[in-house]
User: Fold this.
Amino acid sequence: MSRATVSRRLPLVWLALHRRRRMLLSLVLGMVVFEALIVVITAAVPPTDLFGGTANPPDAFKAFSGSNGDVSIASYPGLLGAGLTHPFWIALQLTAIGALGAAAVAADVESGTIELLMTRPVSRRRLLAERTAALAAASVLLNAAATATVALGVALSPDLRAAVPVGGVFAAGVLGCGFALCLTGPVLAVSAVSRRRAHVIGAAVTLGAVGFALNFVALAWTPAAPLRYLSPFHYYTPADALAHGTVPWSSLAVLCTAGLTGLAAAFALLDRRDLAI
Assistant:
């Protein structure tokens, strides 16, 4: 199917991606460069050398390796997993989710163009559906860039290839898409009711920052351990996927359920909203 055909059938998808093409290109390039750097460091320096010769760093480091405890950050899967839960990785994901999530509804309400858009034969559900598809495409593109970079690095390094199954790299990529969906749903729900794009971007940042903080505290401080179930980072465990070579389906199901619930709420809220207010 040609690009022209896609733009005719899904004009809002194409327009959303086209308007933010430079941002998306920058995010993808940033993701590739960052993950390549992580792979180079991981392959060049034995993991235990980075942590004073110990294979069991403090529990707090579990939050940075993307594991619930099965995989130490002082290992090849742990270090590669750290590259997939690093604040820079999170920031790139949140930038795409926040920018495209805000553009779904809130940006048009803020700029006053939503009423003009609604005068054309475009239903509210189609508007949200196509802009959700654009956000999903951007998130998949970012995770595919990270996955492809790590997979290439693993394939080119004998040490990494011996410790990390290639299937585990792709399993971590699938889990990354689930994580993006988990945040996308609630962010779109905020966009469906908000009049300001800043509110949507703030919601995306808050979900990411608070979620990471909850998981960190829960892993580092035993009395707070139950809080980990409230964080998407408890279910997004790329290091476990890298080490075991399989997708943790129960965790992926939780991430997808949270995201789809938020998305359903977004459609329901937009249907009931007075766009003139």
Notes: The radius of gyration is 20 Å. Residues 11-272 form one domain. Residues 124-156 form the longest helix (33 residues). The chain has a mean pLDDT of 88.
